[in-house]
Amino acid sequence: MRLWKTILAAAVLALATGSPTFAARTDLVIGIPLEPPHLDPTAGAAAAIDEVLYANVFEGLTRIGQNGEVLPDLAESWTISDDGKTYTFKLHSGVKFHDGADFSADDVKFSLDRARADNSVNAQKALFAEIDKVEIVDPATVKVTLKNPQGSFLYNMGWGDAVIVSPKSADTNKEKPVGTGPFKFQSWSKGSSITLVKSDHYWGTPASLDKVEFRIVPDAAAYVPALLSGDIQAFPFFDPESLAQVKDDPRFKVVIGSTEGETILSINNKKPPFDKLQVRQAISYALDRKAIIDGASAGLGLPIGSHMSPANKDYVDLTGRYPHDIAKAKELLKEAGLENGFKATLKLPPPGYARLGGEIIASELRDVGINLEIIPVEWAQWLDQVFTKKDYDLTIVSHTEPNDIDIYSRKDYYFNYDNPTFDRVIADLNLTSDEAKRKELLAQAQKILADDAVVGFLYELPKVGVWDAKLQGLWENAPIQANDLTKVKWGE
Amino acid sequence: MTMHIDIPEETLSSILAKAFRNTAFVAGFVITVLILAMAVISYVWTPYDVTRLVISDKTQGPSLAHWFGTDHFGRDILSMIMVGARNSIAVAFVAVGIGMGVGVPLGAFAAARGGLVDEALMRINDLVFAFPALLSAIMITAIFGPGAVNAIIAIGIFNIPVFARVARAGALAIWPREFILAARAAGKSSTQISIEHVLPNIATLLLVQGTIQFALGILAEAGLSYLGLGAQPPMPSWGRMLFDAQTRMVAAPWMAIFPGMAIVITVLGLNLLGDGIADILDPKSRRQR
Amino acid sequence: MTAYLLKRFAIALATLVLASMVVFAVLEILPGDPARLMLGMNASADQVELLRNQMGLNAPLAWRYLHWAGGLLSLDFGRSYTYSVPVLDLVRERLAVSLPLALIALALSTIIAIPVGLFSASRRGRAGDTVAMGAAQLGVAVPNFWFALMLIYVFAVWLRLVPAGGFPGWGAGIWPAAKSLMLPAVALALPQAAILARVTRSALIEVLNEDYIRTARAKGLPYRAVLWRHALRNAMIPVLTILGLQFAFLLAGTIIIENVFYLPGLGRLVFQAITQRDLIVVESVVMLLVAAVIAVNLVVDLSYAVVDPRLRSRQ
User: Could you give all domains of chain C from N- to C-terminal order, each with its CATH number?
Assistant: First the structure.
């Protein structure tokens, strides 16, 4: 067997035209699961856009670091007025866009005004909703006035949807993105890969890599072969279920980090019988989070008891609120008058956590008498039927936006949850900037959600990164969906 | 009035004797019967319950307890293959049924009427043929949602023109024959003639084509399920098992090997059976693809 | 003859028009809003409506059909919703993968199938024939995606001879690009070769039973010469027919294989476009494939007519 392998390999090696290089590498091929629909972060919700461009090609006033902290970016510093409504940003000087245009306060005003305009198609328009006006003080200073104080404003400005673009290239960014970052866009081979190269006149610390190729690999089955064959050197978002195949291989580094993705079993709170608290609580008792994490996420991922990442400083551990207890679940169903169980549907979007988790949850709920029909849907259908039309009973999805507990207070959100007490807590939170007070309000909010069993809280999506052991500087965590390559380099 | 069928000189026993000398037929027959038996047995008994997930037993290799190992949810692969056979057979069988049920009357009708009707029907046939089958099946499941029933419809639709063509070609060869002329002279309508004389004579052709389409149906169902568009969990299906297996090929190759072999053996068995039947009953019949 | 040709062309055209209506209608009822998909979960209904207007999705049905169909005639396939580039450019890029892949697979299957068919036919009923046809039976029964998975693990993971998937682009050089098409081509070719070998064998056997072959044999021509010079040439018609159909099938039928090897080909373009509701791409590519099949059928029909004049007169 061994001999055959050697002979065969030698025979083909003789044919192959390999030219090994011994200098330190400056190129990198990164695997990403989904192809961005286009390359303009200010005009689309697809996470894949940010995964390629955020911090690499485009920069904002602020940016978000790998632990979720707000860092200065194009704004080197800022001051906040005492009433918390006026932000004055001091901008870096000598910054140029990749097409040679100079960056100045004009571009900041243009970008923010464009994002919040009536005809804006920015996918996160809400980020800019509190902005009252944007004024240019001088070419290096911008003043932003808010309608109300907003605790999260600096964080919001760090989102990929808030990056600064040039009026000259704004309309063509979808095809040919032009930003101010350390990498500039080179080419996009549709369906296959996107290539960035180092920008020659970057204003900050230049990148170590000369060339980065983002290779689109939609099929998790192809991850392992691509890594093993060396075609792709890094998968920042690896498939947890394939991990067993590479984790003991010294050529690779496996890094488990955190995300802001609360993976939940969403429940349509207005649809009978889910409008009954006992039914929702019964579901929560029926869920065995450990089995779900083991089966859908290779045992990785921390269980959650409410809508907050365990990595968050304001996290309250509520995982003990509903222990796995089949008897209790059955009892609650009986109280709700459903001792014979009932039928419902479970609509599952494409990601592995949903499809695998769905099978496990269906089996667990069957144990308490709830028979689920599994309906797999594509994202387009999920957004249309579940998210927009709220035509669903149960679904599984990971809410990857950071600090998004307020979604439960949104009118008409797809949970169909309506609790004035909770809404008041969130309203208070928005007006509070005192840290201790905020922490207390957030704790309250988490507790209300858990008590109401609004949804089935499952686990925090882990960020499983696998890359060449010699590669340094990739993000461990994913506070936002991004692949920041500014500090990535090859070691010895 | 006697029915005229083209295999009359042989007695049943001589056909059987021929059948048992035909290796392809015997092999195909044995395989098909075994697969069918497996599917039937799965209704009353499987080594393990396939709806029960035992996460703590996930991806165990083949052993005495689990002959073919377990999958990523700790389910027994052998049990899943047994239950999956049900799904594959049911989907392919009903799809062939749709194809025959609609296609054969269409083809026979076209052959009987000829002229414009024939032309029009065959053009519609060509229209369906012109659509890439797998792509269209994907579109059908995108509209109606994935699932076994929609997979049946998607595969069934594309069986219709196949059977229509075979039936028409077979019928056209029969119509000029003397016994048909005799029937005509006796004042029978073309519908009567089609049913009483044409159909029995093309039955062999249809049977052979049926086994081929059955085998193709099993492959098509596996392909659709592999893309996640076929039968949905908790119902096990062979294609879906392969889909689940592909991300775990290095760690759990048994998850891919056994369901794949189940597909290969079943399709092989059906094809051999079809070949065998064709050889025994009508050495001149040509297999159509 | 001219009348027959004209009639055939007219029918082909009518089929195309009908097909375009079917395609358009089918996509109309496809659930899911492309605008909502592009904007995601945080966008408001007004924003979605705005984008729908910008994308021209709110125009009347008939107008959109005529606009699209008219565009097809002038080879203007419209612009992709998601990529916002002309569909024709996308198709051209993808054909640069799918066309060579289909051709390599077809060539491979021919190279394997014809000799096997010849071998089997010349040894009809003997051990060699049985083994070869048994292998062909097995080849027909193997699902190509399963075979592809097995190939990946042997040649890419275990032996590391070829890439496990992906396509570097022809810009990376002929060899690296061709190398990445090798496994997919083999995976596609095997079942096709098995079918083709069977067809070749039976076509040859039929020809070998014809009188003129017996005459040639009787004249003392060596068996080999008869087989190659007379029999093979005459058996080519059914073989070429199957080849034509297989080519059309390969162009469209590579969806699963392109997914397994993550190749940016035509099949995957359509598959992705369906899930992303990039309707204009789906419509155009499906029409293109349908047109290809109709063209192949037309050629096959015409070649029958040329070969067998009786078919013409019967019509």
Answer: 87-313 (1.10.3720.10)
Q: Are C315 and C4 in contact (CB under 8 A)?
A: yes
pLDDT in tens, A198-222: 998 899 999 999 999 999 887 777 7
- Residue B31: list chain C partners with CB under 8 A: none
Mutation target vs C (from A1, A192, A399; most C CBs, 10 A cutoff):
A192
Asked if B226 and C256 come within 8 Å (Cβ–Cβ), the reply is yes
- C297 interaction partners in chain B (CB closer than 8 Å): 126, 129-130
Residues of B in contact with C143 (CB under 8 A): 219, 222-223, 226, 239, 242, 260, 263-264
A189–C37 C-beta distance less than 8 A: no
ipTM at complex level: 0.83
In the sheet where A141-146 sits, what is the strand order?
A75-80, A86-91, A141-146, A131-138
For residue C293, give how far its alpha carbon lies from the nearest alpha carbon of chain A (Å). Answer: 25
Contacts of B181 (CB under 8 A, 6+ apart): none
The CA-based diameter of chain A, rounded to the nearest angstrom, is 77
For residue A303, say if its preceding peptide bond is cis, omega within 30 degrees of 0: no
Higher-pLDDT residue of B37, B23: B37
Determine how many CB atoms are found less than 10 A away from the CB of residue B166: 24
Q: List CB contacts (< 8 A) between C83 and chain A.
A: 37-38, 190
pLDDT in tens, C115-159: 999 889 888 888 888 899 889 999 989 998 999 988 888 887 778
Between CA A329 and CA A337, with CA A335 as vertex, the angle to 5 degrees is 105
Residue A470: count of CB within 10 angstroms of its CB: 14
Residue B140: CB atoms within 10 A of its CB come to 21
In 3D space, the residue among A44, A1, A457, A432 whose CA is nearest the CA of residue A264 turns out to be A457
- The span from the CA of A333 to the CA of A283, in Å, is 9
DSSP states along C20-46: HHHHHHHHHT--S-HHHHHH-TT--HH
Angstrom distance (rounded) from CA B214 to CA B210? 6
Q: Given pLDDT bands bounded at 50, 70 and 90, which one contains residue C267?
A: confident
Residue A295 and residue B53: Cβ atoms within 8 Å?
Answer: yes
* C-contacting chains (≥3 CB pairs under 8 Å): A, B
User: Is B128 touching C (CB cutoff 8 A)?
Assistant: no
